[in-house]
Amino acid sequence: MHSASNKYLLAAAICCFAAALAHLGCIAFGGDWYRFFGAGEQMARMAEQGLWYPTIVTSIIVMVLLVWALYGLSGAGVIIRLPLTKLALILIASILLLRGVSFVSLMPIFPENSLTFWLISSGICLFIGGLFALGSWQQWSVLGAKSA
């Protein structure tokens, strides 16, 4: 794989690792972190009460972000090629970009989340999704040019 120079996918992976760490911080440090990141007062209170729901939901997000980071590293050629890397990168980019643009329709489902949360998290999703999309395009352009 001739993609060790794919800086977009490497940056996307680093961003996913950073986002996973921030979510782990919410689990470790509780309500104040949930409040700071705009997850809503209800999530913050549940975390402070020691309820399992915030930990489970946040842990799932951490796991997804870590898998996405690994696929970014795989696509960048930093680690071994994972199964279905191309498909995974397309899906990851699509999910993040869709999440970034669809926040208005998601807001009523999660009324506790602040507008600041929606704007910042949507911007982050668009940014990381763009990195995955650009990196995937760069990867296939390089491979396509070499195979032609």
- Number of domains as seen in the coordinates: 1
Provide the β-strand percentage band.
under 5%
Structural class assignment: mainly alpha
| Tally of separate helices | 7
| N-to-C series of helices and strands | HHHHHHH
Q: What's the overall geometry?
A: globular
Radius of gyration: 17 Å
Biggest sheet overview? none
Would you mind describing this structure in some detail?
The structure is a single chain. By secondary structure, the protein is mainly alpha-helical. The protein has one domain. Helix content is 78%, strand content 0%. It is built from 7 helices and no strands. The chain has helices at residues 7-29, 31-36, 41-48, 52-76, 85-101, 103-106, 115-147. Helix 1 (7-29) packs antiparallel against helix 4 (52-76). The longest helix is centred in the C-terminal third of the chain and has 33 residues, at 115-147. The relative contact order is 0.19. The mean pLDDT is 92.
What's this, in brief?
The chain has 148 residues and is mostly helical. It is built from seven helices and no strands.
Write a concise keyword list for the protein shown above:
single chain; 148 residues; mainly alpha; 7 helices; 78% helix; 0% strand
